[in-house]
Amino acid sequence: MTETRKKTSRWKTWALVGSVTLNLVLVGMLGGVVLRGGPDGSLMRATIGALPDDARRDMRREGREAFRGTRGRGDLRAARADMLAALRAETFDEAAFRAGLDAAQGRLLQIGDRLEGQLVMRLSTLDRAARAEVADRLEQRTERIARDRGRD
Length: 152
What we know:
By secondary structure, this protein is mainly α. The chain has helices at residues 2-36, 43-50, 53-69, 74-88, 94-124, 128-148.
């Protein structure tokens, strides 16, 4: 009976590890889409790319700072510890594991919100002619994305 239980336990452990790995990959991909855009880019990324050179450089620097600013936070360390404990527990603690993933997702959303605020602030300082240039570049970028995807 113990041999059967060990085989079943090993199978469940590997299935759990595979499931967790897949979830972490998906969270990482989602983070990449939020921060860098998908394969064709996101609308926020396209707008940042349409900014004048100096504003675009500042936004990139702001993005790096926003990402670095969330490093070393105690709540993320605690979430990581909870996730590891949930994985190592005799019985998988789904709620604790989900809470850890939610903390990581919350971090990405905070970064996105910060960048959005910076983008809007920078756009609000431009005069009408500069905003029109940004609009033209944004339109070109997004039309190219839509055309490449086969949309109108």
